[in-house]
Amino acid sequence: MALADLQQTVDELDHSLSEIETVLDPEAKHREIAELEKEVAAPDLWDDQEHAQQVTSRLSALQSQVEKLEQLRSRIEDVGVLLEFAGEGGDADSAAEAEGEISSLRTEIDALEVRTLLSGKYDEREALVTIRSEAGGVDAADFAEMLLRMYLRWAERHQYKVEVLDTSYAEEAGIKSATFIVHAPFAYGTLSVEQGTHRLVRISPFDNQGRRQTSFAGVEVLPVVEETDHVDIPEADLRVDVFHASGPGGQGVNTTDSAVRLTHLPTGIVVSCQNERSQIQNKAAALRVLQAKLLEKARAEQEAEMNSLKSEGNSWGAQMRSYVLHPYQMVKDLRTNHEVGNTDAVFDGDIDAFIDAGIRWRRGQQDQ
Q1: Mean pLDDT in the chain?
Q2: pLDDT band at 309, cuts 50/70/90?
């Protein structure tokens, strides 16, 4: 690429980063960091461990965001210097190094630009994800487990901590459902575009006649409830059932009634947790899931009320992605039309391009 073209690209990246800085406001973040550092330095901080964890987590997230912006700004300045060297001395090595760095900067700035589109009320929160097998019998249960692994691998790629709260195994293969929390800033805003029905088309490994099978799995994404949400659930509104934790078998299967199922009587919402060792821990985890579902129900009702005032409602849900393994290989998002042919990579957690396209599509829908 000619030096003039490289310089034009650098100028465009500089402009994009300036716009991102305007949205993210690093100076305001520096001020909040200073206030949080005072809290962290307080000797009684850990008297309230849950509050302390919130403070330290917020501080770490802000420091990471500011550091990322500063690094990108510094790298843009450095690549400008490289281009000057290349122009003045005809240094081919500097030009090649600059071209590689520009490509890397474009990828990282594009990803950061997507983050600026996450401005919803709960977008900054951690994500509570539930995957359920739907139509398709044993193939659907197997597909649900494939999706579970896909999201866990995605989180692992980003070094996000995941806490699995509940897994309900199907009788023959796969899972009926699974619920987990992704502990990362903006996990909800990021993963919320994954909500909907996912469809798999393949030659069924469970069909002895080798026929093609279509199966479905549903993904639900909720923001994790925080203390400030004040989701009060009177004990009288709850039915608590305990049961044996289930599993695929072996020595790890719990033989005590430690698993907990909560039924919210006014709404009929049912949640369960069985991955902790004690009944008390499972009940606490199940309560967090129930609170998140009630929070989302209230949000959905408010959104439905707003949509009723418009000519058309919100249609983000329903079938949103198709995974075809036969007669050809293709994963395609039915909302954004983003598609890839490497299905193995997708099922191994390489879904960032789908998520980014979904976030941009959602913002376009909101702006209409």
Answers
A1: 87
A2: very low
Band of the pLDDT at 258, cuts 50, 70, 90? confident
In a domain, 229, yes or no: no
Report whether 218 contacts 200 (CB < 8 A).
no
Domain that holds residue 338: 127-223+313-367
Contact status, residue 218 vs residue 196, Cβ threshold 8 Å: yes
Say how far residue 140 (Cα) sits from the centre of its chain.
22
Domain-embedded: residue 261: yes
pLDDT on residue 365: 83
Closest CA to 361 of 329, 337, 340, 330: 337
Q: Report the CATH number at residue 300.
A: 3.30.160.20
- Domain final position from 74, 89, 115: 115
Half-sphere exposure of 49 (CA within 13 A, CB side): 0
DSSP string, 291-330: HHHHHHHHHHHHHHHHHTTSSS-----SEEEEEE-SSS-E
Residue 54 to residue 125: CA distance in whole angstroms: 11
The answer on pLDDT for 53 being more than 90 is: no
